[in-house]
Design a protein that fits this description.
40% of the residues lie in helices and 17% in strands. It has eleven helices and 13 strands. It has a seven-stranded parallel sheet with strand order 3-2-1-4-5-6-11, with helices on both faces. Strands 7-10 form a two-stranded parallel ribbon. The chain has 341 residues and is α/β, with parallel strands linked by helices. It has a domain at 5-186 and 234-265 and 304-317: 3-Layer(aba) Sandwich (Rossmann fold). Helix 5 packs parallel to helix 6. The structure holds nicotinamide-adenine-dinucleotide (NAD) and uridine-5'-diphosphate-4-deoxy-4-fluoro-alpha-D-galactose. Uridine-5'-diphosphate-4-deoxy-4-fluoro-alpha-D-galactose binds next to helix 7 and strand 8.
Amino acid sequence: MSTGEILVTGGTGFIGSHCCVSLMKQGYRVVVVDNLSNSDAGVIDRIASITGSRPAFYIADVRNADEMDRVLRRHDISAAIHFAGLKAVGESVAVPLRYFDNNVGGTIALCQVLNTHGIKRLIFSSSATVYGAPDRVPVAEDAPLRPASPYGHSKAMVEQILADLSHADPEWRIGILRYFNPAGAHESGLIGESPRGTPNNLVPFLAQVAAGQRDALNIFGNDYPTPDGTGIRDYIHVMDLAEGHCAALEALLQGQPGFTVNLGSGRGHSVLDVVRAFEAACGHAIPCHHAPRRAGDVAEYYADPSRAMTLLGWESRRDLESICRDAWHSQCRQSNGASQR
Ligand code: NAD
Ligand code: UFG
């Protein structure tokens, strides 16, 4: 499938940039919109280095209807993939209005302008955080939604808004993708995860400790009811995630009705598993300390990814070792000055 232009909001961010690479490799023409609040315009150069062509790029905020209208007038967009948003759980507790404004208000504004231009194919970045603490694992899409932070609420609210929108106007076809724990980087190391300030997430934090930029990893909790006492998550390689978006887009463009799908590997790994895999990738021991549990963390969750296979023909292919190898490669390139910001 290679027709049409695809709007990618948040396309210079971590997941969006990898998705641009996958889309362009499949022959799609990509139009990126990003306000650069959490990324750098240089990412576009690196996407071009990897793919051999440049996506169209606009610095714009999805909440700004005039800016978005101008972009949409210049292109022939057949579908949008909406990554743009804020994602730090802790920050969302401190400044909830900023999260609702950007994540909920941004999506409403985007849908309005898309509607005006008759663009009614949309893929939305949701999160496994909408499940909160699950009753059982693996977690399937029909599990109850119990988000436990303003960030999680913002994702669940958008899911509801999008369901109501497609109910009101069946021409809308919307794919909601609930990501588990995205990590890793493109194998080139040219793009990756380069969080501003202290990383919140395990893999980028580990990468910085391994590179000597931080003293040690704090392992949050070693008394969970899991085999080694540390938290278990479903880490999914960001390139698998990117390919999942291509499969979802393909399905929507071929006329499949809307869907809500988990994107995860279906495998759970403990914090200690990840530390060991990262040590193997970087070739040396990583200093770790045990620390108290982090507020809001749950002991264990991982996806039931079967619906993604049934509906989209997609499953993750890369393992934890690939995630750590590619994250480390990307970290080394950043440390060597091929800065990602
Ligand atoms: P990211 O911060 O790297 O990328 C988001 C991009 O959106 C950034 O480049 C930022 O500058 C841009 N942006 C933010 N608000 C904007 C706005 N109003 N207008 C235009 N651009 C804006 O984050 P990511 O990890 O790539 O996440 C992408 C999406 O996936 C987010 O919606 C996030 O909530 C969701 N998600 C991420 C994870 C994860 O662990 N990374 C897990 C589940 C869901
Ligand atoms: N952890 C540590 N030390 C750290 C960071 C994390 O021990 O410095 C542990 C956590 O306690 C948890 C595991 O590593 O057991 C994974 O933690 P992350 O912060 O990497 O990921 P979370 O599962 O907490 O949440 C992530 C994103 C959310 C998203 C969710 C989706 O941060 O935005 O995945 O599943 F919603």
